[in-house]
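Write out the 3D structure for:
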Amino acid sequence: MLPSSLDRPYDFAITRLQAAQGDVQALPEPLQTLLMVESAHTLIEAGGLVFFYEADFPNNPPYEAFAAAYRRIGAHAAALCIAETAALFPFADPELFEPLRQLWLEKLQTEGHGRFQRLSDEIAGDEAVWEKLAVYVAAHGSAFAKAP
């Protein structure tokens, strides 16, 4: 769950996202990082990596962009979980093909895949992500200040 210390930076980032017409990748890197980690980790905590991959994010940022956001905050193990599970999709650019992702995820849940589930459990239980995100935002505080 997003720490309360991130409420104001998050609200600021959402305002900027709306001004960018929902294109998170058009935002400055600190805002992008906050929004990508928050959206991903909220889904992952709720339902593991299946929930994350079921989501169709606006403008379909590559899954590597989410992994990179986790790396920027120092959550390297979580980033690896995303990178490794994204590589399990049997087709390129899975973020672009929601119907194919859904089919593959259904098959995965029916047939099982130990590695996917292990990585999903690992990232879903990583409480340190929120702490690392708060530290990252504090270190980049000027990016979350209102322009004069």
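The helical segments are 7-19, 29-54, 63-72, 76-86, 98-111, 114-124, 128-139.
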